[in-house]
Amino acid sequence: MIERVRAVLVTADDTMLVIRRTRPGISEYWVLPGGGVEPSDASREAALHREIHEEIAGKADIIRLFHTTESDDERQLFYLARAVTWSFDDRTGPEFSAEGRGEYALEEVPLTMEGLDGIDLKPEEIAHVLRGAISAGSLGAGASL
Question: Which are the contacts of 31, defined by CB distance < 8 A and separation ≥ 6?
Fold first, then answer.
């Protein structure tokens, strides 16, 4: 089974860092930063730190496991994390130089229902879970991450 780790990266300004994916022939969509756990990663959290470094040229404090999705061949672990540093220009992941992979644009989205409703976040299950957490007041302003 393939394991992937992704981060709900909350900033000090109550935004969430997301990656807008633009690919030929496919409608624009957004994903949370992250990627596959590699055999060389010491742990899932180490994999997430590596992916955050590659995809947003940044660092984050991982708070806790937030949600898990699973299919027949893939498990995705979504962690809640506080973004400490990031750069829109200094990303180094292999996906940025691969031909034909489309665009990976790093964006900040308000951590609100309106912010989520303004993007097509994939997978839909994590978008649904995030909406529930925002409604419950467990994310964003005043929440103790």
Answer: 6, 18, 19, 21, 121, 122
Residue 130 DSSP SS3:
helix
Burial class (CB in 10 A: 0-12, 13-18, 19+), 45: middle
What's the predicted TM-score (pTM) here? 0.89
Cα–Cα distance for residue pair 21/30, rounded to 1 Å: 6
Beta strands in the chain (DSSP E): 2-10, 15-23, 26-31, 34-36, 59-70, 74-85, 103-110
Q: Which of 115, 83, 85, 96 is nearest to 35 (CA)?
A: 96
Strands 34-36 and 2-10: antiparallel
pLDDT at 145 over 70: no
Q: Which residues are paired to 65 by β-bridges? A: 79
